[in-house]
Each structure stands twice: as structure tokens, then as C-alpha cells.
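Researcher: Please predict.
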Amino acid sequence: MKRAEILHEFVGGMRAMAPLTTAVVPIGLVFGAVAAAKGLSSLEAAMMSALVFAGGSQFVAMDIWMHPASWSALAFSALLVNIRHVLMGASIGMRMPAFSGPAKCAAVLLLADEIWAMAELRAGQTRLTPAWYAGLAIPFYCVWVLTSLAGSLVGAFLGDPKAIGLDFAFPAVFTVLVMSFWKGRETGAVLAASAAAAVLVYQLLPGVWYIAAGAAAGVVATLTRGRQREASA
């Protein structure tokens, strides 16, 4: 692929991702503010976003953060929250015949829910290229790290994120992502199963087990619906 074509693909991915890159700005600011409130320095907050790059597990970590930090609890919670990345990585990995081995590893390293969703949509329409994926992932990653840093620097001025409604940014982005994959009643059944399991486990068990329960229920519901389609075919 020529340099001009690579640039064109990169810019195309960046444009496609622009709405979600913009939407992650308040989430990054909120995370930085929460991290600062928990006693993390601006460097520590930025490094956490740069090295972990997983908003869900980062917020969970901040929710259970204490001094001294329980590293085993933090690691286990992050594992539960991010276990979905195994499924996302397996799914998107099958969409990357144009990727070399190192490029595929780099792509998976920068995988996030929003990036995965956009890459899956692209792969359903045309070939997914490394340059287009880089246009998705690199600006999004940079914005996440920089807004986390900015949020930690101005955390004292932001105050309680819930008081100004910024806490809604995180679920709002995921609502948009879910709706982009809506396929009618089948999608509704999977979402209902995930929601029911998550709410039930949230009420019965402490910690973040509800996340794993919701994911597992969604997988089971998807497999069940798939078998029902095969049986009726």
C-alpha cells in the first residue's frame, strides 16, 4: 500500500472514530478527577491510563482504592471487568487477514470497547486495514491519556462529578455502542438476559461479580438463540 493510501486510510479511521473520541473526553476528565481525589498524582493517573487503557477497570479500581492498596483485590477486579476482552480479541482477530503478526498484536494491545465496535462495523462492510484501525485507535488512546492527565490537574475545581452530571458520560457512550449493534428482538433478548443476571448478582454478591455474570448470561443467551435458529432452519 502506497504512503498516500495509508494516510487516506488512517484519516478515514480517525474521522469515523471522531464522535466517540470526542465523547471520551468527559470520561477521561472524570477519571482523572476521581484519581486525584483518591490521592494519585497527575503522573500516576496518566500512567495508569497509558498502561491499563481500560476505562471500566480503571473506574472499578478507583472505586475500591484504599491506602495501602490491596493489589490482589485490584488485580482480580480488573480481571473480572476486562474478561470480555478475550471475546472481543477473538472476534476482531478473525477480521484481520490484512494484518501482520506484530500489527495484530499492537491492534489487540490498543483494543477498547469503542475501538472494537467501530472495527467490527468496518469489517462487516469492507476489508479492515492496519492503517484504518490505527486511525481509530491512536487518536482515541492519546485523548484518553491526555484527558486523564487534565482531569487530575483540575480535579479540585471539577468537584464531585455526579453533581455536574459528568458521571453519565460513561454509560451514555456504551448505550450508543449497544444501539449501533441493534438487530431487533434477538439483540433485545441478549441484553435482557445480561441485564437481569447483572442486577441479580449485584444485589446478592459484593464486588464486581455482576459484570462477569452479565457477560456470561449474554454469551449463553447468544448461543441459545443461535441453536434455536439452527434447529428451526
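Model: The two ends are 42 Å apart (CA to CA).
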